[in-house]
Amino acid sequence: MRTLGASPWEGDLQNQDELSLALAEFDVLIHAAGCRDLAAPVRLLEQSNTILTQRVVDAAAKAGVPQFIYISAASVVMGVPTPLLNVTESSPIVLRDYLPYTRSKALAEASVLAVRQTAMTVVVLRPSFVWGKGDSIDTEIGPASNHGQFGWFSQGHYPFATCSIANLCDALQLAMQYTQSGCVFNISDGEPVDFRAFMSQRLKVGGYRVPTLSVPRKLAWWLGAFTETGWKYLPMPGKPPLVREMVRLMGFPFTISIEQARHELGYLAAHSIEAQQGGPQH
After folding, report:
1. Would you state the CATH architecture of domain 2-277?
2. pLDDT tens digits, residue range 182-232?
3. CA 140 – CA 211 distance, rounded (Å)
4. Rounded to 5, what percent of the chain is helix, strand, coil?
5. pLDDT tens across 83-113, in order?
6. Which stretch of DSSP H or E encloses residue 205?
7. Which of these ranges, 19-28, 43-52, 111-120, 206-215, has the smallest mean pLDDT?
8. Residue 236, exposed/middle/buried by CB under 10 A (0-12, 13-18, 19+)?
9. pLDDT at 280 over 60
10. Contact (CB, 8 A) for 35 and 49
11. Are the CB atoms for 255 and 86 separated by under 8 Å?
């Protein structure tokens, strides 16, 4: 971080007074911290995503930070396992106990948007399946695939919205210049991809094994519920290999509209998947 010009701060994120002092000179605060482990305990997700965001946004408002940008998730509109296509920012937020990560992000987003608008300008970005070096594919999916623990849901061929870290950074640059408050923007790579084609190419680029196993969605959903129950009530080691949230997030057609970001922010989704992954998507 220091070599890139950043100055890390060491302190207690749970101490609002200490945090407010540290933020006093900030012009803009981008909050992207949190837990993205879908198999993490519910309490950890609540603490790391919902409660932490509430404390950070309150501390920023107290410190007089002019602008707060929160990186939420496009999945906050997901509920029952069904296809969602061309989802807009006006789609209702859904809170489901069986989607604890998504629930924690939705509640965190709500706390940001609840900030008194005259005190601080707030902007929420909702990227869909952020990918790039060090992403969830590098840390979780790829290693799982190498061990035969990742496969496709109903063959994996369906439209899906993705967002490269490069495009997300562009959106952040534009959001920092945005002067209105209380706005939410979907962010993606533009045109949706075929999930299996995209994921196969990303796994290849990362040097991971591409799976051939496919499980029907309904069976995967049932297995996810079964393993969640087992790991919750029995002394099982490690984390459950499959949870319903993973099936919901990656197992169904999901695309979003970025027209609002194009119109209001001037967002272009300029970085193509082909250029970044080194090959065409089919």
Report:
1. 3-Layer(aba) Sandwich (3.40)
2. 999 999 999 999 999 999 999 999 999 999 999 999 999 999 999 999 988
3. 14
4. 45, 15, 40
5. 999 999 999 999 999 999 999 999 999 999 9
6. helix 195-205
7. 111-120
8. exposed
9. no
10. yes
11. yes
User: Helices H, strands E: what count in the chain?
Assistant: 12, 12
Identity of the amino acid at 59: A
Is residue 206 within 8 A of residue 136, CB to CB? The reply is no
Kindly state the DSSP code that residue 166 receives in the 8-state scheme: H
pTM over 0.85: yes
Q: Which residues pair with 69 in a beta bridge?
A: 30, 123
CA 256 to mean position of chain CA atoms: 14
The pLDDT, as a whole number, for residue 209 is 97
| Residue with tokens 């952020």, as numbered in its chain | 130
Cβ atoms of 172 and 69 within 8 Å: the answer is: yes
Residues in Cβ contact with 66 at an 8 Å cutoff, skipping those fewer than 6 apart: 27, 28, 120, 121
Which H helix or E strand runs over 85? strand 84-87
Residue 67 contacts by C-beta under 8 Å, 6 or more apart in sequence?
27, 28, 29, 120, 121, 122, 123, 176
Report phi then psi at 77, rounded to 5.
-95, 0
Amino acid identity, position 255: T
Q: How far is CA 251 from CA 41, 219, 247, 248, in A?
A: 22, 12, 5, 6
State residue 135's pLDDT score: 93
Task: Provide the pLDDT for residue 11.
Answer: 82
